[in-house]
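User: structure tokens for this one?
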Amino acid sequence: MSEIKVAIVGLDTSHSIEFSRRMNAPDCDPKLKVEGLKAVCCMRFETPFQNKEGLDARQKQLESWGIKVTESFDECVADCDAIMLEINDPAYHLEYFEKAVKLGKPIFLDKPLSDTYASGKAIYDLAKKYNARVISSSSLRFVTAVVEAKKVIPEPEFVTVYGALGIAPAGSSVVWYGVHTMEMLQKLMGPGAVSIKAIKDEKGVTCFVRYKNGNRGIAELNTGSYIYGGAVRTKGQAHPFVVDMSMAYTLQLIEVAKFFNGGDAPVSMEDTLEVMDLLDTAQRSLDSGEEENLNGSY
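Assistant:
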């Protein structure tokens, strides 16, 4: 693969550091290193997810790897072949995607798609309008255990997944952190969710998902626990799994590199929009105390 120059928009997430490490750091563990990409510039700005002190520390790290840091979007994207939107606060995603999509460069929009279904659908519509090459997902879609579970039982009737529920400094924690677990559910079950009943208790949030073909999905979002896993089942077969997160960023970045080099999208925007809808509907169910229908049809 030829080397792709990457602009990173956002520094309020550790992902800006972790992806840059795998692209640029000379001392990166060889098994984590991803070839074919080089981060050249990063745009920084404060959000509720990171203050100036934290941004300063991250800037120093990026600069040690030869990455220029700026507060100008135009400067950040001026000399790049592809863009990674790495903004921890999903409320900013639509604003910066609207700027990036007009440039005609391939885009990776880090999870979640946005902060609400409405803004996520606006991103989806913009991608279609500009015929843009865009992918957006959590790394959990690409971890080995999930990929293998999909191969073992490609058409399950029951999927149970569990993962972390981090507490968001702003906005919905379910949307912000539940994306990892919902990403696994959507990958393993495929499209077709119609409604969600979400229940909150002392341990977090449990989401019961109904599908139009009668299948059932259960997603446990657990506070204080960062273990991911689950099980895919039919009436006569079961395959449990636990996720090894040590290679998650690398496996995702490998897929991004292939995509930036002209490869097929490893996840469709339709699947990404369904993940966003699952998250939005789960939050609406928590708010109403009722089972809620998804906004769209998949």
